[in-house]
Amino acid sequence: MCCFLQGVGGFLLLVFVFGGISDTSAERSERRQEKHQEKRPVSVVIPTAVKRLDTVTLQCNYNLSGEPIYTVKWYKGPKEFYRYIPKELPNVQVFALPGITVDELKSTHKNLVLKNVQPEVTGRYKCEVSSDAPNFYTYMQSGYMYVIDVPVEDPILRTDKEILDTGYRLKGNCSAPASWPPANITWLLNGKPINYTYQERVQPRDYNMKASATSNKRIPLVTVSGVEVAIDESHFHGGKARISCVASVFHLYRREKSVVLDEDRPRPRPSSVLGNRDSNSGTSKYFSIIFYSITTQILLFSR
User: Fold this and answer.
1) How many CB atoms lie within 10 A of CB 130?
2) End of a domain among 95, 113, 148?
């Protein structure tokens, strides 16, 4: 700055002092923006999974530290479908988006209510909040929501044997009903988790490919899982063990199927039966001896 004092200093000094103030203001603005971002002034509450035809509420909570709100917007993917502007009347604007039905009477600047949700509504939802002048900050948060057809059937469990020798390697197969997203299968032996040998998703045989080609619905998949485990004496309690498979889709569906396994081992005859047989045998021998003695004596005296 001293070099400007040697020239026609006032004008030049005025220009550069003004420029210095402008730079400082920009730096302060950036610091304020960073401070706001660190506080995360916007948060969303979006359910991870909901049932088809449910009414769903998405929440957008914000705290801009006293700054006025300019707009609150909701997006599905890149497309805006809901806008709230407090300075305008009406405050709410809804833009048509396939599969999304907004309940305008119940929706507010913080709560967005969707009616009769369909599987094609599955996707990422984003809330964007903008502050008014002079800063016009914009903050956003998002979350993913699945809309699913909850299966109604139980899983199907099969084992290659149900009466086992100790040490036998049991093979089991479990299939969960078709759904999107596909179900997850876990295995239990006497209530304790065991590792599966394989798990895959396949398209159901009776699925109508022509209908799926003309709809936006995702293709439901059947989950198939297998297990192979050695069964030893420690697994049997009272001669029995239990193997189970559990099929689940988020928190909306959970079904368990079990098979009771019997230990294959020789069973001794009941002691009461053996006791009676021995007793009867001894009695027969006793009477045979007496009968023989009497018969012998009669023959001797008859002579």
Assistant:
1) 18
2) 148
Least confident of 61-75, 127-141, 214-228, 252-266: 214-228
CB contact at 8 A, 148 and 111: no
118 lies in some domain? yes
CB neighbour list of residue 9: distance below 8 Å, 6 or more residues apart? none
Most confident of 36-50, 113-127, 204-218: 113-127
Higher pLDDT, 197 or 133: 197
pTM above 0.70, yes or no: no
* 161 within some domain: yes
Give CA separation, 291 vs 281, 285, 303, in Å: 15, 10, 19
In a domain, 181, yes or no: yes
CA 231, 233, 236, 240 torsion-angle sign? positive
Neighbours of 114 (CB within 10 A): 27
Per the structure block, which two tokens stand in for 100? 């999304």
Residues 180 and 103 in one domain: no
**Strand pairing class (56-62; 42-45):** antiparallel
CATH number of 167's domain: 2.60.40.10
SS (H, E, C) 65-88: CCCCEEEEEEEECCEEEEEECCCC
Structure tokens at 73: 């917007």
Residue 16 within a domain: no
Task: Render 226-289 in DSSP notation, one character per residue.
Answer: EEEEE--GGG-BTTEEEEEEEEEETTTEEEEEEEEEEE----PPPHHHHHHHHHHHHHHHHHHH
Q: How many whole angstroms separate alpha carbon 144 and alpha carbon 5?
A: 62
Structurally, the chain folds into a number of domains equal to 2
> Which amino acid does the sequence have at 50?
V
Instruction: Quote the domain boundaries for residue 65.
Output: 31-148
